[in-house]
Amino acid sequence: MFPRRCARAGLCLLFLSLSAGPALSAQSGLAYLGDELRALQADPFANPGLLWVDRGEALWHQAPPGGGSACASCHGPAETLAPLVPALPRWNSESRRLEHLEGLIRQCQTDQQGTAPAPYESEALLALTARLSFAARGRALSNQVAPEATEALARGKAFFYQQRGQLELSCADCHERYAGARLRGDRVSEGMINGFPIYRLTWQTLGSRHRMFRWCNEAVRAEPYAYGAEPYLELELYLRQRGAGLPVETPAVRR
Amino acid sequence: MALKATPAALALALAISLEPLAVTEDARIADGARLAADPQAGDCGICHHLPGHDARDQGTVGPPLAGVGSRLDRATLEALMTDARALRPGSIMPRYGVSATAPRVPGVLQGEALLSPSERAAIVAWLESLKAPTQATPHG
């Protein structure tokens, strides 16, 4: 009896430790914006990120050079993939690794369309990512994590709390402990990922989740990982679960 | 002709001899103010409000620095500018005088402290100069 109870308690503790602490009160970065940027994001004519959504819609229907089929030929309207977006990254049981939206698009380009995959942060990949994420607008980020991805989720959480770089700061140091405070005049968000790809004024363009991770890493003078690298996929998985329930709001506008 | 060591001459000589020291200290304080605000150096404004700067562009993670020279003595300021986390466990203030031990420090920065001893001394001099305004004493 006692061992079984202990085992149950242990499982509960494991679950609790893998679940994000403040997830119940998770707030989108939108909540930390000033009125001007909130209005810009909400404006369907002025939100600059919508340019990429339009480009993505065109690309979705455009056959790639070399005779391959357009995305729409197999998938139909982009909206058909809307349920998939809030559940990414997810565990791929064949490759036995995590996959995210950019990776799935690139894989489709290689395997199904017979073209070279669009490079990370290329206009084409950002546009397609923006279009599919836009289709999922309003859908809640999923809390579901495959049992096989439990270790990856734990590593993603460890990444979030690991201090790194010459400034020896973790994601949590800013986005959990000091969320709401100001860094150089800007309010620190909770680091949620429900608005990506985002139009960032600092970049004057759209950027992916992994670009943001790289930017933050460089800001604390830490060596960033490559786009699509496993540690970033694991962090992305953790942040998706940490922000579970938040609505997809692509394309978000941020400082 | 022999010079007479009159009190006036002595005072003049003392003033002349002290002037370079005063200029040096003023220059060091000015240098500290510049280093504190420089994003490539101390970058204190990212977390603190630096007096004389627009609060809308400054941080609120740490306390405002106005009057810090009245709140903390030189030894404490020096300790904070060397290894704030040793002095105040739990603080996330960068360790300006100690090389980082956290992972993923780029190769060119490994073993390097964020600021040199002279840069830290300049910032400490500037911090020490930030005195709280004195209360006017009522005259009876």
CATH homologous superfamily classification of chain B: Cytochrome c-like domain
The largest contact between protein chains, plus residue counts on each side, is: A-B, 21 and 23 residues
* Secondary-structure element order of chain A, N to C: HHHHEEHHHHEEEEHHE
Question: Number of domains in the coordinates of chain B?
Answer: 1
Enter the CATH topology name of chain B.
Cytochrome Bc1 Complex, Chain D, domain 2
Given as residue ranges, the uncertain stretches of chain A (5+ residues, pLDDT < 50) are 1-23
Structural class, from secondary structure content of chain B?
A: mainly alpha
Number of strands of chain A: 7
Major beta sheet, strand line-up of chain A: 6-5-7
So what's the CATH class of chain A? Mainly Alpha
CATH homology superfamily name of chain A: Cytochrome c-like domain
Q: Which sheet architecture does the biggest sheet of chain A show? A: 3 strands, mixed
Give the CA-CA distance, first to last residue of chain A.
55 Å
- Largest sheet data of chain B: none
